[in-house]
Amino acid sequence: MSTTPTTFDEASLVAKAQAGDTSAFSELVSRYQNKIYRLAKHITQNDEDAEDVLQEAFLKAYEHLDGFQGNSKFYTWIVRIAVNESLMKLRKRRGDRTVPLDEPLDTGEETVKREIAVWEGNPEDQYSQEEMREILDEAVQSLKPDFRTVFVLRDIEELSTEETAETLGISIPAVKSRLLRARLALREKLTRKFKRKGEDVFANL
Amino acid sequence: MSLLTCKQFLQELNDYLDPSIDPETKRHLESHVSQCPNCFVVVDTTLKTLKVYKGMEPQPVPEDLRNRLWAAVERKMEAKKKKVQS
Q: pTM (2 decimals)?
């Protein structure tokens, strides 16, 4: 091959793929497959479902590529497809109980117990990448699906508040309040893990 | 503007962490953090929490799954090609 596909930006890859260039689509797959797989694993919390989501998301994207307008980023589009597939899997696993994605929530932080302690240095220096991944994944898994999904989209996949709201079909205030709850809950969990030992500085205040 | 309580501050924490926040709101929130060691620690550890998550690269898709994905994509491409030709 004479070209180096990695030098193409996303928009030109999409245009090429739409014009029938299969290698351009393959490049898009290889560019985003790891992220889409991580996203699917985070939301479904099930390896088998995540594998299905990964395949179905890219197959659907390919199938509907001609309909992709290009007014959003391809990445946002594929994320949206993967989130929808993941939520469907999640609903299926939970039997006929629907996931109440737009259920009103109390936004007060009372329910989040607060751990006030500084962290012991930089955790990345103290744990291997594998250990860190495990700790971080476990913390995300402990969140309820509504919070988990918003956190994953906003803070891991870095979608905007508006994109997240649109992807999940919920309001912007709902995204904001869930993100706040998720962030505080994760901060709490990680602080328990990473805090400077024997130094709950403000515990008695 | 009156000084915020910790509860009020925490409800605005996302805005405080948002780089696009307007300067006046930022100052108002800052006035609480600068005087409240607890909220200062919460801000600091929340920022660190976000940093560790953002710094985590996704794990590569396992090879056998990657192969299955490629095979499925290729089948789809073939099918589309045939459809266009016919």
A: 0.85
